[in-house]
Amino acid sequence: MRSMFKVVGLCAGLLCTVTAGSMAQADEPRVVGWIEKGLILPEYTAVKIKVDSGALTSSMHAVNMEEFSHRGNDWVRYDVPVEDVDTGEQVTLHFERPVFRRILVRGAGGSERRPVVKMSICMGDQVYEEQFSLRDRGEMNYPVLIGRRTIAHIGLIDVSETFMHKPNCSQEQIDEERRRQQQREEEGADNETGETDDSQA
Questions:
Q1: For 41-82, how does the pLDDT look when each residue is reduced to its tens digit (9 = 90+)?
Q2: What distances in angstroms separate CA 23 from CA 31, 126, 176, one per listed residue?
Q3: What is the CA radius of gyration of the chain?
Q4: Which among 141, 144, 114, 112 is positioned nearest to 128, based on CA atoms?
Q5: Is 2 a residue whose pLDDT tops 70?
Q6: Do the Cβ atoms of 38 and 49 come closer than 8 Å?
Q7: Long-range contacts of range 179-186, CB-CB < 8 Å, 24 or more positions apart?
């Protein structure tokens, strides 16, 4: 009988160890490389993304920016010309978004005020709706830069690794993003005030 209690106690101890290990693994933050591949949604275009803790707000390549008023709020239409890294084709995405806020960005070349919009990207198996300042990044190697605001939602950076996560968002997530964009366009959106931001590469 005493032997049976020892066996039961050993099994219970092992179960606790396995459960605790599983919980610790589930609580571990996601680790991403300093370069990742992501999808600009809802257009489903694959681009290279630079994960940069030196910038506060994320940034996206944009040209032909034109601001206009929609339902009493400030909106901006813009083009995002990028290379689809899955196909190698040059594509131009067209967007219209409410100006969420404006930021004053200070860097080595001076300062400039940029509109900030909310855009959604797929990284790994998650969709992130984040704030992106718009600027011409044509001279940069990466059309999308992820800053600290977004990194805080994603996890940690391994600066020695690249392309650790293949975009794998479900069709349901992408369809939901399309519905949200349509609803936003129909209802309009309020604008927020701006702030000073870090320099961004």
A1: 988 899 999 999 999 999 999 999 999 998 889 999 999 999
A2: 17, 20, 30
A3: 22
A4: 144
A5: no
A6: yes
A7: 180/120, 180/129, 181/42, 184/97, 184/98, 185/96
Query: Tens digit of pLDDT for each residue in 143-163?
Result: 999 999 999 989 899 999 999
Do strands 195-197 and 101-107 pair parallel, antiparallel, or not at all (unpaired)?
parallel
| Contact (Cβ atoms closer than 8 angstroms) between residue 70 and residue 24 | no
Place of tokens 């939602």: 153
- Asked if residues 158 and 35 have their Cβ atoms less than 8 Å apart, the reply is no
- For the entire predicted model, the pTM comes to 0.77
Peptide bond into 167 cis (omega under 30): no
Q: Which two tokens stand for residue 109?
A: 């070349």
